[in-house]
Write a structure and sequence with these properties.
Strand content: 25-35%
Low-confidence stretches: none
Number of strands: 12
Helix content: 25-40%
CATH class of the largest domain: Alpha Beta
Number of helices: 8
CATH superfamily of the largest domain: Gcn5-related N-acetyltransferase (GNAT)
Order of helices and strands: EHHEEEHEHEEHHEEEHEHE
Radius of gyration: 20 Å
CATH topology of the largest domain: Aminopeptidase
CATH architecture of the largest domain: 3-Layer(aba) Sandwich
Structural class: alpha+beta
Mean pLDDT: 92
Distance between the termini: 34 Å
Largest sheet: 12 strands, mixed
């Protein structure tokens, strides 16, 4: 059995959606990104792809069968991936041999900056990519996925209050999105952060913490899908750090998601940042699993 691929998000979700939703917390990235793609396509209609390089369009795929190659074609879906150009491939928990086949065969010739997966899966994918392409593989970021087990507000609470961002906040939020991307050295950085902020504002997906009449922190949130939503990005400008504003914004955004029907609220942390890991645990987030982003370089 080979990987099946498509550029059509509706086709992908029809095939892989039930599989992804069974582990909706662990599959948060693919579910939330494809939900944004689905909503955008519904609003804008199908784009005219004539003359567009296929490598410049998102590619999605699923694996059907047991956890190894050569499965029966009628077998259930047991793996999925998403690749948005300029960003790493996001891969679900599959057997190392299946990950290696994806890198060496299915995605052969497609420009890839890296892979994001559970460590053993990412290493298998990266090794196959390196054998086929040469170059070097570097650890870009070790991450931990957390799920909210029970919200605990910061105590003592910082000064100020939460509010939902609106269009008047767009210039500031575009700057904050860009600053966050720069600080975390995001793979694929340089994307249109104003568009990203505008899209979040459009569905009330950014919570601002305001103190003394001034915005001092923000916490973004994805759309809710399969009963789950993800917090991020969370950003506090350097001049306002160390006062609990980011924690309060995160708590407020988490509470809003719960109030609007989310059954599971999740977020990712950088394991190299012990401060953020401890902060999120204090407000009620508990570890689910670790993932790693590996970066591919020509050197």
């Amino acid at each position: 059995m080979a990987w099946q691929t498509t550029g059509d998000v509706a086709e992908f979700l029809a095939a892989a959606g039930p599989y992804l939703r069974r582990e909706h917390v662990r599959n948060t990235v693919i579910l939330t990104v494809t939900e944004t793609m689905r909503v955008s396509a519904a609003h804008s209609g199908e784009p005219d792809e004539a003359g567009v390089d296929p490598a410049a369009r998102p590619l999605l795929g699923w694996w059907a069968g047991p956890g190894e190659p050569a499965a029966a074609s009628a077998a259930p879906v047991t793996g999925a991936f998403l690749h948005t150009p300029r960003f790493p491939v996001v891969l679900t928990d599959v057997a190392p041999a299946v990950a290696a086949e994806l890198a060496a065969v299915t995605l052969a010739g497609r420009p890839l900056p890296g892979v994001n997966a559970r460590p053993e899966v990412a290493r298998a994918f990266a090794a196959a990519w390196q054998r086929a392409n040469g170059g070097a593989v570097h650890v870009h970021r070790n991450q931990r996925l957390y799920r909210l087990a029970g919200l605990s507000w910061p105590d003592p609470a910082p000064a100020g209050a939460a509010r939902i961002a609106d269009d008047s906040d767009l210039p500031l939020l575009a700057q904050w999105f860009a600053a966050f991307e720069f600080e975390v050295h995001e793979m694929g950085r340089g994307s249109d952060q104003a568009a990203a902020a505008r899209e979040r504002i459009g569905y009330q997906g950014i919570t601002i913490w305001e103190a003394g009449g001034e915005p001092v922190a923000m916490a973004g949130a994805t759309r809710r899908v399969a009963g789950m939503a993800r917090i991020g990005p969370v950003y506090t400008p350097p001049a306002h750090r160390g006062r609990g504003y980011g924690s309060a914004a995160t708590a407020a955004a988490s509470q809003r998601l719960l109030d609007h029907g989310a059954e599971d609220v999740v977020l990712f942390t950088d394991l190299a940042n012990p401060v953020s890991n401890s902060i999120y645990q204090r407000i009620g987030y508990r570890a689910v699993e670790d993932r790693v982003s590996l970066e591919f370089r020509a050197d």
